[in-house]
Amino acid sequence: MKNLIIRKPDDWHLHLREGLVLKNIIKYTTEYFGRAIVMPNTNEPVTTIERAVSYKKEILDAIALGTNFDPLMTIYLTDETNKEELKRGYKDKVFFAGKLYPANATTNSRHGVKEIKNIYKLFEIMEDIGMPLLIHGEVTDSNVDIFDREEVFIDRELNQIINRFPRLKVVLEHITTRYAVEFVMEKKIHATITPHHLHINRNAMFFGGLNSDFYCLPVAKREFNRLSLIKAATSGIENFFLGTDSAPHMREWKAFCGCAGIFNAPVALSSYLKVFQEENSLDKFEAFASLNGPKFYNLPPNQEKINLVYESFKVDDFVEISDSFKVVGKIKKFHAGEFLNWRIQNDSHSS
Ligand code: NCD
Ligand code: ZN
After folding, report:
1. d(C-alpha 289, C-alpha 243), whole Å
2. Nearest C-alpha to atom 5 of ligand 1 is from which residue?
3. pLDDT tens-digit profile of 244-293?
4. Domain boundaries, the chain
5. How far apart are CA 351 and CA 346, in angstroms?
6. How far apart, in Å, are the Cα atoms of 308 and each of 88, 136, 279, 285?
7. Residue bearing the CA closest to ligand 1, atom 9
8. Which of 245, 283, 316, 347 is catalytic?
9. Which end of the chain is more exposed for a tag (fewer CB within 10 A), N or C?
10. How many angstroms is it from 140 CA to the middle of ligand 1?
11. What is the atom index within ligand 1 of the atom nearest the CA of 215?
12. Nearest to 98 by CA among 59, 49, 50, 62
């Protein structure tokens, strides 16, 4: 197959950051995706209507004129989230969904939920008004091995949440295990799958020394889990859809503190397509990337189509972050130095 025409995809899990980083990276997402669910774990987290409005404005101001892109904002749930604010924000279409981060589970999650039972009262409202709940599904108990945290979260927390709130629209984000794939299918909930979890297993973090380029949360797991994620994503089954979890960190910080997050936005579609092609499932890509998500969120699929062409290109190492003309930093791309085979026709960014 030499080209593939599909409806423009959406990214159902994305970190856009703020300030200069936002300004320099947003073009990668707006070129390839019609909409994106924007994660609320900014430096000052998006916990109120006011903050969501100002963050959305910052995002829209950073987008090139004439670009058709819809950022879908989320509220960062905390033990203190105000019920009325949650309800009003959803009814007024400021919040598209609510995000649950267990406190300290990942980057900028120190404000997250300390005791999930404390926010059952919010779930009750969300179930009632049809507001989706997006979950970072890892326990933070330091006695639980980091590679087991997703499975333990499913057993200790998620199972109870969905039993107690059967009509709640739940997305288990960036799943990394076969256990999660099976749970999602059995309980008929939904999940996003990232490109990196389809490509790497836990060995990647230790290849050639300790390598934080492949460190993200939840961490990549053993190979059999990756294989199960590949089967799920490429099946076309509507419970699974695209969410890149593209999470840029400036090189200095990544190198210095090894912060969690992989920046895949510039190569996300090509990265997924490599896997779909290897699985002989290119015919399922549109469902995963452009149809299953809108169906779950009760939105129409994007009208616009994109033409993906089979053409080899080398991924360069970094995206530069500049302030006007002065380069102030850089961010490592996922697949840096590798060859990928699919690109969007007329795409000006992948190289
Ligand atoms: C994300 C980030 O950097 O904001 N990091 C990551 O490893 N995925 C946060 C998250 O989604 O866990
Ligand atoms: Zn994320």
Report:
1. 9
2. 261
3. 999 999 998 888 888 999 999 999 999 999 999 999 999 999 999 999 99
4. 10-300
5. 12
6. 40, 31, 17, 11
7. 107
8. 245
9. N
10. 14
11. 7
12. 49
Of ligand 1's listed atoms, the one at least distance from the Cα of 13 is: 11
> What does the pLDDT look like over 74-114, one tens digit per residue?
999 999 999 999 999 999 999 999 999 999 888 788 889 99
Ligand 1 atom nearest to 249, measured from its CA: 3
Instruction: Pinpoint the alpha helices (H) of 188-328.
Output: 195-199, 223-234, 251-257, 268-278, 285-286, 292-296
Q: Categorize the per-residue pLDDT at 154 as very low, low, confident or very high, splitting at 50, 70 and 90.
A: very high
Identify which of 104, 106, 214 to mutate to test ligand 1's pocket (most ligand atoms within 8 A of the CB).
106
pLDDT tier, 349 (very low <50, low <70, confident <90, very high otherwise) = low
Between vectors from CA 344 to CA 341 and to CA 345, what angle results, nearest 5°?
110
Distance, in Å, from the CA atom of 105 to the CA atom of 23, rounded to the nearest integer, reads 27
Catalytic site residue 245? yes
CB 163 within 8 A of CB 123: no
Rounded to an integer, what distance in angstroms lies between the CA atom of residue 179 and that of residue 262? 23
The fold of the 10-300 domain, in CATH, is TIM Barrel (3.20.20)
Structure-token pair, residue 41: 């774990």
Give the tens place of pLDDT for each residue, 199-228.
999 999 999 899 999 999 999 999 999 999
Alpha-helical regions (H) of the chain? 19-32, 49-62, 83-91, 120-129, 149-153, 159-164, 178-187, 195-199, 223-234, 251-257, 268-278, 285-286, 292-296
Report which residue type is found at 20. Answer: L
Cα–ligand 1 centroid distance for 287 (angstroms): 25
**Distance (Å, rounded) from C-alpha 146 to C-alpha 36?**
29
